[in-house]
Amino acid sequence: MPRTKSQKKAYQKMYYEENREKMKSYQTEYQKKYLQIPKNKEWKKSYMREYQKTYSSEWQKNNPEKVAFNQKKWREKNLDKFNKYMQEYRDSDIGKRRMRVANWRQIGIEDSNFNDLYDFYMTETNCMICDKEYKDSRERHLDHDHESGEVRYICCRTCNIYLLGNKINGE
Asked: What is the pLDDT of residue 62?
């Protein structure tokens, strides 16, 4: 007498539960033999890399709370490693660029191409108003219109605070 679909599933589940250890040991032995062949090892490595990319990105999209929880748990467990990585990132050129641009966006600066603006900002050596040479990076300021977010000048701290600050206050 043929089994129904639900009967087959129930039997398979029961069989797996009863023979779990036997099946795991068989799979382990098979994988050891299979992976001893270099061609198979390379194929599996490349296949798993591609599979992991698709599966991982799908899983992360579908489980944002779990991702955030796992990241937080990892950071807590590896605090020294995480802090060291973040410090290296902040000191790198790309980290400095991204943090500067994020800061500009946060204070309301609007531009069509922040990368070009950043490059221009970093290559500018003199104040656009008084032509004073910048001694260090803290001297350089990106002046912008607080209403529209439009960039006006790259100027020194003095010009940004006194000259342009007074212009805004109506003096």
From this structure: 94
